[in-house]
Fold this sequence. Notes:
This protein has a single domain (about 20-205, about 220-430), classed as MFS general substrate transporter like domains (Growth Hormone, Chain: A, Up-down Bundle), CATH 1.20.1250. It contains 16 helices and no strands. Helices cover about 80% and strands about 0% of the residues. By secondary structure, it is mostly helical. α3 crosses α14.
Amino acid sequence: MxxxxxxxxxxxxxxxRTATLWRHRDFRLLWAxxxxxxxxxxxxxxxxxxxxxxxxxVTPFQMGLLTAAETAAFLLVGLPAGxxxxxxxxxxxxLAADVARGLLLLSVPLAxxxxxxxxxxxxxxxxxxxxxxxxxxxxxxxxxxSLVGRELLIEGNSKLESTRSLSHVTGPAIGGGLVQLLGxxxxxxxxxxxxxxxxxxxxxxxxxxxxxxPAEHPLLRTQIAEGLRFVLRHPLLRPITGSTxxxxxxxxxxxxxxxxxxxxxxxxxxxxxxxxxxxxxxxGLLGAVTSAWVARRVGQARIIWLSVLVTSPFGLLxxxxxxxxxxxxxxxxxxxxxxxxxxxxxxxxxxxxAICPDRLLGRMNASIRFLVWGIMPLGGLAGxxxxxxxxxxxxxxxAMSGQALSVGWVLASPLRTMRDLPTxxxxxxxxxx
Length: 433
């Protein structure tokens, strides 16, 4: 049965009204700000690559370098960011990151209007916006438990994923339309404004944030090592992290060449490209709305590997698409993958937030971000090189095959034989025996 956008909205609103967090004022502010920011980011996700392709006429390698720059900060400062954030309150960091990202993106249309925009400015903006995203994301995932309580984490993450996915349904289509009507650089302005709105919403949150616990080990490298050990020695977090990192590496290859494939190989207009980019959001929205129900029916542990195993092979449809009826294959593949990724993320993010001690939350999130996002710039560089060597279609074959195989980490782990994940109390009891 096909859901219309209005039906998706109605489902989302019904879920929100009946849920506990619907009456949580400060969560609503965080949710509203994040929703608007996600809409702007979804617009920019199509607008920035099209600035590079249509305005600056980049090569595949230059596009790979730009893709790498967007996530390079996770590799460069991902680990110390977590240790720093465990020493300070998270909300002021999120506010500063929102304002900084808004100003950086604002510089792109301003430079273009002044006829000063260059590829190198775009590269620097992508790098610094990624730096702000590192600090915001690590702070945000560590802030949510103190805002809503651990017992409401799955509900909170599901709500945030729902509107994030909804933004991915409409954002790229709006972005593609804006690029076609106003130009790619002007469309970037939407993302800049969205960050300022997010900051304004965060500034109104009243829930007091607890003072961070004093560091047991003042040395930064000691704290970083403690966070990494917690992730890499945990028998369930380790395979989840390996699977996510593998998927993201090959996703970086895909990101480096997909706009070139659609714009140059298939000759599609910005508006059509934007519409195709909405497919992942449709699947993600359905995943966010149904993730809690699916986890209850299938099991929170089982759904982690099953969601990827069933949906990621659909990606192999993308490289065989052509500028005819086969364009629909891209849409089908992105819907399936978008659904699987969101169901997977809601289950594994909620688990790791619930299982981790408060004092390690920032370092745990930063360690995982470093491992699973820090590898993406390497994927972007690999995508640029593969695009030059094999062509963009050949690079897509490598990317989608690798994504389909990434489930091997969790299939080879204890997760394969488990239905549900252990609670923090159960793990503590096991460790005492």
